[in-house]
């Protein structure tokens, strides 16, 4: 099988649990470290699928690699090569497919509940769950691409995940998190919050995030497994 290309945009937002899942299923993957100056492939043909991780930048920033990534995503969708995006990755997918990425009404940080939509697509990708606590760390949000179906939403952010056809999954939330990633990100918590002493309800304090890891991380992994298991069924051989 051709490898899955995993695009990393900053060192602290690596493949996380997604890579562990691929390893467990003996699916080869290769890292494309954009943060280290790696070149964006001009074609998706060498890969069975494309995965885009998170990052602190905006898809609207004038970064030289963003137009190249957008072109790559469009090519992959045109060729039915599966694409999956986590947070910034989901926003890149939305922008590549002609939609706006804009500021969310509020930042959403920490563990917050996400709920499935009442759609056949949500049941196909998520099963019969009523919802789960996902991890969040974002201030922007994407619009749904034409033909896409929203499968997850939250109180603070309407569009938490969408699917396009049966191969492409864009997410605003971070289902790829590991304990190490959560602890590392929280060293920057105060810099993300305008009033650390009185954060809004959508911004969970660091100590609360860490206290809930033991319960929420295994539960989220169950949903990660379900989403990733569905996604890999479309990989090109």
Architecture blueprint of SSEs:
Blueprint: E1 4-8, H1 17-24, E2 29-33, E3 49-52, H2 65-78, E4 83-86, H3 88-96, E5 101-116, H4 120-126, E6 132-142, E7 148-153, E8 161-164, E9 168-171, H5 179-185, H6 189-192, H7 206-232
Helix pairs in contact: 2-3
Question: How would you summarize this macromolecular structure in one to three sentences?
Answer:
By secondary structure, the chain is α/β, with parallel strands linked by helices. The protein is 32% helix and 25% strand.
Explain what this protein looks like in three dimensions.
Helix 2 (65-78) crosses helix 3. The protein has seven helices and nine strands; from the N terminus they run E-H-E-E-H-E-H-E-H-E-E-E-E-H-H-H. The chain is of the alpha/beta class. Strand 1, helix 1 and strand 2 (29-33) form a beta-alpha-beta unit. The termini are close together. It has a nine-stranded mixed beta sheet, with helices on both faces.
Quick tags:
single chain; 237 residues; alpha/beta; 9-stranded mixed sheet; 7 helices; 32% helix; globular
β-strand number? 9
Compute the separation of the termini in Å: 5 Å
Q: Quick one: biggest sheet?
A: 9 strands, mixed
In DSSP terms (H or I, runs of 4 or more residues), the helix count works out at 7
> Could you say which structural class the secondary elements and strand pairing correspond to?
alpha/beta
């Amino acid at each position: 099988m051709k490898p899955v290309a995993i695009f990393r945009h900053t060192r602290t937002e690596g493949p996380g649990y997604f890579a562990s899942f691929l390893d467990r299923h003996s699916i080869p993957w290769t890292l494309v470290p954009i943060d280290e100056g790696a070149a964006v492939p001009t074609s998706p043909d060498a890969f069975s699928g494309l995965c885009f991780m998170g990052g602190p930048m905006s898809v609207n920033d004038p970064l030289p690699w963003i137009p190249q990534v957008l072109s790559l995503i469009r090519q992959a969708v045109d060729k039915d090569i599966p694409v999956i995006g986590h947070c910034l990755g989901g926003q890149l997918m939305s922008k590549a497919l002609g939609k706006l990425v804009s500021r969310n009404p509020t930042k959403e940080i920490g563990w917050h509940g996400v709920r499935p939509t009442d759609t056949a697509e949500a049941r196909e990708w998520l099963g019969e769950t009523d919802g789960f606590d996902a991890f969040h760390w974002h201030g922007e949000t994407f619009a749904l691409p034409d033909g896409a179906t929203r499968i997850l939403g939250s109180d603070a952010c309407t569009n938490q995940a969408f699917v396009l056809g049966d191969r492409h999954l864009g997410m605003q939330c971070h289902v790829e998190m590991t304990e190490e990633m959560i602890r590392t990100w929280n060293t920057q918590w105060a810099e993300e919050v305008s009033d650390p002493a009185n954060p809004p309800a959508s911004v969970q304090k660091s100590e609360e995030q860490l206290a809930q890891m033991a319960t929420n991380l295994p539960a989220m992994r169950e949903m990660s497994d379900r989403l990733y298991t569905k996604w890999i069924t479309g990989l090109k051989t």
